[in-house]
Amino acid sequence: MERFNPLRAQLEAHENTLGELRVTQAALAADMAWYDECDPAKLTAQLAAEQESVAAYDVQLEEIKTTLRDVGRRAKELMPATRMGWNPAYWMSSERSAAKSGLAKRVAEIRRLQAERDRVSGEREIAAQRLSDVEAAVARYAGFNRPSAVGALSQAEAEVSSHSASIEDLRMRADALDEELDAPRTQFVAIGEEVEELTRDLGRAERLLRELKHADNSYERAMVHQECERRFGTGSPAAAIGRLQKELAAKERTSEKLERRLHDIARRGSREIRSLVIDGSNLCYEGDKLVGLFALRELCARLQDEYELTVIFDASIRARLGLPSDDRLREQLSGVTVHVTAPGTSADETILDLADDPMTFVVSNDRFVDFPEKGAVRDRRVIRHEIVGGRVLVRDLKVDVEFSNRTS
After folding, report:
1. Residues near 392 by Cβ (< 8 Å), separated by ≥ 6?
2. CATH for 275-402, options being 3.40.1000.10, 2.50.20.10, 3.40.50.11980, 3.60.15.10
3. How confident is the model over 342-366, as pLDDT tens digits?
4. Pairing with 35, which of 20, 41, 253, 262 sits 20 to 30 Å away (CA)?
């Protein structure tokens, strides 16, 4: 079931794009193979042969046309002599018979020549098409830029390879998201079916109530009460309606909660996160209690293999942590980019400015209410964390790590 999993639609779109890229790659490879296998000397000889063939057909057609005109002229000259005229003696005369015979031969000759002309004309069209194909091949060969084609093919192959890897990664993410969605989605579907059934039952109970109100006698009312008792365990349609409405409202609330949960899971699971900007000062506290760098250090160790990390501190952190310099602070978080803002500079704004890329998220419990226009705030790319009982939890990143504030 693809509902609630936006990665499935993305996967389908990526697969369609990959199909198009493979078509392009195959076309470029075919062009290259054609060029490499093509013999330009053979093409030149074929071009000359086809030109000669078309020219020969042109000569033959011209000869047929000339003969046709000549035979047609002679047939026209015979036509007056074939007419009966006004003299009955001429009707059966040898002269008229000879003229009719000669005209018939000329007509037969014209038909033969016309058929010959049509045949030769058809063959000429085929030869002209062959000539056109050879001319196109000659032009194609002459205009083919092999170094450019090699570059285009290499680029297409790289795009296919990159897109294939991207699709595999996206498929794994989609499968993982489906697995996470499976249980609540199954519950959501089941609750939806229960809501539909309760809605139908409510409609039946309301129908029974109307029938009860319009019953003409005690017998009809008794029949309504009996049916209500059979269907709903109570003979009172009003009582059944009240119970059903409460059950329906409860199920709808449960359905809404499940739907919100599913959307939240889908939102988290469909995020593409490449880098994180961590509010370092924020992670030095469990509530109002200073826990130092212990929690932050364990969190960074857990995340740094998967994401590019940048940790931002405000200028007062050194004094609160009892560290003499920024370098000593950086030593505590090896392998991570650490930046301490200058005195009087807003660490919040620095954090948000560094998270302007759509694939960069902020880890902080600050709501940044003073910066609603910043991309990370506007696009809801701020991830919350919890520090409690010696554990750091970042549910959006599926992180739950333990830490100790003991130095031994």
Report:
1. 283, 295, 298, 299, 385, 386, 399, 400, 401, 402, 403
2. 3.40.50.11980
3. 888 889 999 999 999 999 999 999 9
4. 20
